[in-house]
Design brief:
Elements lengths: L1 E9 L3 H10 L7 E6 L4 H17 L4 E6 L5 H16 L2 E7 L3 E3 L3 H11 L3 E9 L4 E2 L2 E4 L5 E2 L6 E4 L4 E5 L17 H10 L4 E12 L10 H18 L5 H24 L3 H21 L1
Parallel strand pairs: 1-2, 1-4, 2-3, 6-12
Antiparallel strand pairs: 4-11, 5-12, 6-7, 6-11, 8-9, 8-10
Helix pairs in contact: 1-2, 5-6, 6-7, 6-8, 7-8
């Protein structure tokens, strides 16, 4: 079995994807899987040309590509890539890395060394360097849906999907919950792992540089809708007891209604409140439909 395969999702970002891919060249990888989530022929052709040129210059590295007819979202895009790899070319570990992130020298070797020395760690992440700050994950508050840089009462630590080294043993039929399109799937995964016998860890000796928003634009409808919808999905995923569910919904309604009002003023646009309202409506309609 091969050791590590990297998986990168691309969405109209061939230049970022190639920069990310180049940063993985000296990490000791043998295989990289590119998931083309653009669903656009021009974007597909642009990425293919860039990858063909890359492969000619870096022949020893095997690069596979999956082309999706439309944007499947992060969770399903990664899961489909893992299913193909597990069936055709299984690896002991999988490195998930955003296309707007760049590995620093020795990043993967440090992650790999840590996981091999700590057999019960199923998810390991590097420190995320965003330029003005170094992040070791976030703390997610179950009641309000707020995220913090340090522990607060009622929160738990999680590693973001920006860059994760994943132990093959936890993949099963699917790594991520595909109810999440984008945003929140990493929180749910970490909660699920932490609730089992497995552990997560941030490795201080490893660093990845991350640009930030990536394929979405903060303030835009796509970002506002999927981000808030993800937080609503997390209500039932994170509840330990049935009585927690209405409290979690109440907490998010207060938090994200306030957030939408603030962002209306910041962006001078009604998009945040419209997206929040639509995500609420869809979430409760689907829940009602599923119950019946």
């Amino acid at each position: 079995m091969l050791t590590v395969c990297a998986i990168i999702l691309d969405y109209f970002g061939s230049s970022k994807t190639m920069t990310c891919l180049a940063s993985l060249m000296d990490q000791g990888l043998d295989t990289v899987m590119i998931v083309d989530n653009s669903g656009d022929q021009n974007a597909n052709a642009q990425l293919k040309a860039a990858l063909d040129n890359f492969s000619q210059r870096h022949a020893p590295l095997t690069v596979h590509r999956i082309i999706n007819q439309h944007n499947l979202g992060f969770a399903k895009g990664v899961n489909d890539a893992l299913r193909w790899l597990e069936k055709n070319q299984p690896h002991r570990y999988y490195l998930l890395i955003n296309n707007d992130a760049e590995a620093t020298p020795g990043m993967l070797s440090q992650l790999l060394k840590f996981m091999q020395e700590n057999k019960r760690v199923a998810l390991a992440a590097p420190v995320i360097d965003v330029g003005y700050q170094q992040l070791k994950g976030f703390w997610y508050h179950r009641l309000t849906g707020l995220m913090f840089f340090r522990p607060v009462i009622g929160s738990f630590h999680y590693l973001t999907g920006c860059c994760l080294l994943v132990d093959q043993r936890i993949i099963g039929d699917a790594l991520f919950n595909e109810e999440f399109f984008m945003y929140g799937e990493d929180v749910e995964l970490n909660w699920r792992i932490r609730s089992s016998d497995w552990k997560i860890a941030c490795v201080n000796e490893a660093t990845v540089q991350h640009e930030g928003v990536g394929s979405s634009r903060q303030g835009g409808y796509f970002y506002e809708y999927h981000m808030t919808y993800g937080h609503l999905l997390l209500v039932r995923k994170l509840a330990r007891k049935q009585w927690e569910i209405p409290l979690f919904y109440f907490g998010r309604i207060v938090t994200f209604t306030t957030r939408a009002i603030v962002r209306i003023a910041r962006y001078r646009s009604l998009v945040p409140i419209k997206a929040w309202g639509q995500s609420l409506r869809k979430h409760f309609l689907l829940h009602h439909y599923n119950r019946n």
